[in-house]
Amino acid sequence: MLVTTLLTFRENIKAFFGRYDYVITPLLKFLLAALVFFMLNSQFGRFALLNKSWLLLALAAVCSMLPSEMITVVGGGMIILLSFPVALDVALLSLAFIVIFYFGYMRFATRTGIIVLLIPVFYALHLTCAIPIVMGFMVGPAAIVPVIFGVILYYYEGCIGNLANLLAAATDDEEAIQGYHYIVTCLVENKLMQLTIVVFTCVIVVTYIIYRMSFEYSWIVAFVVGGILNVVLFLIGGVTMSMDVDTGGIVLGSLAGILVSLVVQFAKGIVDYQKTELLQFEDDEYYYYVKAIPKLTISESNKNVKHINSKTQ
Amino acid sequence: MVREEDVKLMSRIAIYEKREGRTEIPVNNYYKGDYIRWNALKAAVSATIVFAVVGTIVVLYKMDYILANVLKLDYKRIGIALAVIYACWVLLYWIAARILYAIRYEKVRPHIIIYNHRLKKLLEARQKEIVKPKGGVVVSDDFIDF
User: Fold this and answer.
1) How far apart are CA A144 and CA A132, in angstroms?
2) Record: contact A93-B57, CB cut-off 8 A
3) Chain B residues near residue A103 by CB distance under 8 angstroms
4) Comparing C-alpha atoms, which of A184, A309, A188 is closest to residue B56?
5) Inter-chain contact B100–A108, Cβ cutoff 8 Å?
6) How far is the CA of B52 from the CAs of A204, A288, B57, B86, in angstroms?
7) In chain A, which residues have their Cβ closer than 8 Å to the Cβ of B47?
């Protein structure tokens, strides 16, 4: 009964989205762009012009009418602009970061580029450990590079914040702080960032492999194994690299990741294993062993059909 | 006269051209081999740019060490190491791009076939409509050549 209610709810949402697609798609893009831009601005937040909320909202409104890749492009431009007030060399480093990402990855997979800007959002929502599980099944191995860049971006923002505080507190008598050198050292010596990158890469790959397997309930197993692997790898990494890792946060984050993945998977469609069909046939060259599992949907009787063109004559 | 079948066909064609077609139709301008080679070449150029930017960052970061040891460095060894790393890096991109674009071409092909089929059906329907009622109206060359 609960499943039927949930399925009806899902179908209603799908129908609603389908009917008002022309409004909902730009609105979702606007919300996504606004979220990303405000998050970037709050992390850097030293460029007076971009501190105006109406400007960010206007940028988001423009992005809502353009292809979604434009959010990534505008976000990249914002990162460079927001780095300028800290130091010129830091802005150039930001530019280098964007160039590496664009030529190294985004040229080949433009659509998944937005993941980079979403990672700091996940961090801000304390859903860090949910990232690899969600990305593992939704995007697959193609998400590894943008997730790595996203993690670097998050810590990069932190380093820039520290540098800005140092520069603000520094007096003229002290030795000049080299912004570029400080930021690169901050990143290179950040063990937690390195551990996060390794763990996320492993979890994405494992979640994706299990999710694609054909045994029953492979998707649930993929999410649970991904969550457990997350916790285990962080703990092992913390011990071997002599770091304090927030065990409670990792466990809760992984649980949140499993829950988010279950909800997204439900929205994508779940299957009815009881009606699995095993078929076998052959042609001149091959034998085919086919396993067909129907998707769980509500029957026609459960749909509320309103006839608007019924013939009354 | 509005023909329902034609409108349906035109709508589907327009939807495809607006969405996936934006990136998929240009693929149809190439043979598979040419498409893969051209994109692998572009990937190699991108890999070179990334290598140059990363190299510049590393050199600037290690500048103090380089200046302190400018006369002691074994430039021949460094040059060979850089060349080997660069070759491996570009080769990795080249192979990845070949695999990626081969898959992409095969993914796009059925969509293009359906798109062309719909265009052909639309053209045939239009030709029938023009020829039937008037009895021998000439269809312009521009209309046929798409």
Assistant:
1) 9
2) yes
3) 46-47, 49-50, 53
4) A184
5) yes
6) 29, 49, 9, 9
7) 103-104
Averaged pLDDT, A279-306: 73
**Is residue B54 less than 8 Å (CB to CB) from chain A?**
yes
Question: Which residues constitute the domain of residue A90?
Answer: 17-170+181-272
Greatest distance between any 2 Cα atoms in chain B: 91
Distance from the Cα of B87 to chain A's closest Cα (Å) equals 16
Mention every residue, 6+ apart, whose C-beta is less than 8 A from residue A51.
A41, A45
A306: pLDDT confidence band, cut at 50, 70 and 90? Answer: low
CB A249 within 8 A of CB A234: no
The number of beta carbons lying within 10 Å of the beta carbon of residue A55 is 13
Give me the interface pTM, i.e. the ipTM: 0.74
Residue A193 lies in a domain: yes
In chain A, the number of structural domains is 1
Ramachandran angles phi, psi of A290, nearest 5°? -110, 135
Q: DSSP alpha helices (H): ranges in chain B?
A: 4-18, 21-24, 32-61, 63-68, 75-134, 141-144
For residues B28 and B113, the answer to whether their CB atoms sit within 8 Å is: no
Residue B141 zone, left/alpha/beta (φ > 0; ψ -120 to 50; rest): alpha
Tell me the shortest Cα–Cα distance from B62 to chain A, in angstroms. Answer: 9
Q: pTM score, two decimals?
A: 0.79
